Amino acid sequence: MEHITLLVGVVIITALVFDFTNGFHDTANAMATTISTGALSPKVAVAMSAILNLVGAFLSVEVAKAISGGIIDESAGLQPEVIFAALVGAILWNLLTWLLGLPSSSSHALFGGLIGATLMAVGTSGVNAGAVMSKVLLPAIAAPIVAGLAAWAATRLTYRINRNADEKVSGKGYRAGQIASAGLVSLAHGTNDAQKTMGVITLTLITVGALAPGSNPPTWVITSAGVAIALGTYLGGWRIIRTMGKGLTDIRPPQGFAAQTSAATVILASSNLGFSLSTTQVCSGSVMGAGLGRKGGTVRWSTAGRMAAAWGLTLPAAGLVAAAAEFLARQGDWGVIAVGAILVAGAGSMYLISRRKPVDASNVTADDLDAPATAAAAPACPAAQIVTVPAQGGPHGAPALTPIAGGAPATAGDAGSEPAATAV
Hints:
Order of helices and strands: HHHHHHHHHHHHHHEE
Shape: globular
Radius of gyration: 27 Å
Strand content: under 5%
Number of domains: 2
Number of helices: 14
Helix content: 55-70%
Strand order of the largest sheet: 1-2
C-alpha cells in the first residue's frame, strides 16, 4: 500500500507539472494578439491571463468528468503507472512543440498519451472509441473551422461598420475591447484546460479506490490544478506567443478583438457541453479567420501548414511515447524510475537548447529576436573607434597621445609639429 501511495503521489505531481506546461504552452491563445497589437504590455498580459485562468478553473467540472469517466474506461483495471506514462508522453510533446514555437494542442497531447498508454496496458477494451470520436476528434475538426468562420465574419462586419471612422480613434476603442475579450478567453481557458488535469488526477484516485467511479474532482484537486496552470500562464510561453501574434498573420486591433471574441464564445460553449476541445486550435483558427477577414489581409500559409502538421502528429506522437513509457514503467520500480529520469533529461535538454536563442517579454514583438540586445549595445556612432595621434607638447619632444573618434586613424606629420586633433 505504501508503494501505491507513493506512486499515486508521483502521478499527481506529474499531472500538475503537465498542467504547468499546459499553462505556458497556451498563454498565446488568450494574449498573443493583445500583445502584438500593443493593447497590453507582455508582462501585464500574462499576469491578467494567469489570474483569470485560476478563476475559470472553479467555474465548471464537465470537461474533467469527461476525461475521468468518458474517454478512458475507469473500470478496465488501469494502474497508476498507465496514467504516469500518459503524462510523460504529453509533457515531452508539449515541451518539444514549445521549443519549436508551434502552437500545438496540449489537450490532444494528453488524450494521445492516455490512449497510447491504455492501449499498451489493457488493449482496446480500455478506450471508449465512441467518446474519443464525439468528444475529441469531431470537435478538433469542427471547432477551428467554426471559430475561423466566426472571426472572419466578425472582422468583415467590424471593418464595414467602421469604414468611415478614423483608424487611430477606433483603434484605441478596439484595444480596450481586446483587453476584455482576452480576459474572456483566459477565463474560458481555465474552464476547459485546467479541468483536464483535474480529470487525470480524479481518474488516478478512482483507479486506486480513493474515489468512487463517476465522482467529481475534490476541492483540493480543483485548487491545485488551477494554481498550477495559472503559474505556467504567468511565466508565459513567449515562443508560441510570438508565432501566434506575428508569425501567422499581421493582426490589427479590430481583428484581434474579433478573433478573441469568437474564440471565447466557442470555448465557453464547448465547456458547457463537456467537449474537451483544443483551445489552441480554436484560437489559431480564429486568428486565421481574422487575418483573412480584413481587406488585403493575408495568412502565412507556410506557418499555418507547420501548425496543421503538428496538430495531426500530436495524438499519435504523444501516444507512441506514452506507450513506450508504459511498457517500461510496468517492469517495476526501476522502470518507473527510468521513465522519470527520461522525462527529466528530456525536459532539461529542451530547456538548455531554448536558451541558445531565448524569447522573452523583451523581444517577443521584435521583428528580429536579437533586436533589443543589438540596440542596447550599439554606440551612437557605429563606425567610431578610439585612436591616438601625436600632438604638440609632449615632454622632451615626445608626442602626447590624444584620443579622437573616427573610423580610420589620422595621419600625423612630424612629431611635435602637428596640432592635436579634435574629437568628432
